[in-house]
Amino acid sequence: xxxxxxxxxxxxxxxxxxxxxxxxxxxxxxxxxxxxxxxxxxxxxxxxxxxxxxxxxxxxxxxxxxxxxxxxxxxxxxxxxxxxxxxxxxxxxxxxxxxxxxxxxxxxxxxxxxxxxxxxxxxxxxxxxxxxxxxxxxxxxxxxxxxxxxxxxxxxxxxxxxxxxxxxxxxxx
Length: 173
Ligand SMILES: [Zn+2]
Description:
Blueprint (H helix, E strand, L loop, with lengths): L2 H24 L3 H11 L10 E5 L1 H11 L1 H26 L2 E3 L7 E5 L4 H22 L9 H25 L2
Helix pairs in contact: 2-5, 3-4, 5-6
Bound molecules: zinc ion.
Zinc ion binds next to helix 5 and helix 6.
């Protein structure tokens, strides 16, 4: 075998191996995750998929902070600067996904550094919020956007996220 042939075989093997690693880490498709969220919410209608954008945590923090400056002012009024800062920092620390229908009604942002099952379950969580807000919130009886409505929306997203996460852990082992 010539040296060139050996080089070509090694290169092909590296490319195939790389592809295999990429595919095995890719997990489920966004369509599958979307179907999971819809099924859990008992939504059968044909709904346009949201656009999913994977970004750094720093970018998520920037997006959230730049869109919620007024929120910080309100917190300062309500609870004083110290508590408001604490709460603000907690949001900045904990943000890993964002769906914000006020600015991007069809875009979901996800922290790209999360491990696979966490990343997918946070995506499912944000997809639930997307579905809750779809068509002006007329899906899933979520027209009511008062505190109780928000609480229900968050509980629903968290329970579907948890169910997906547990199933993901089992299927990936
Ligand atoms: Zn949520």
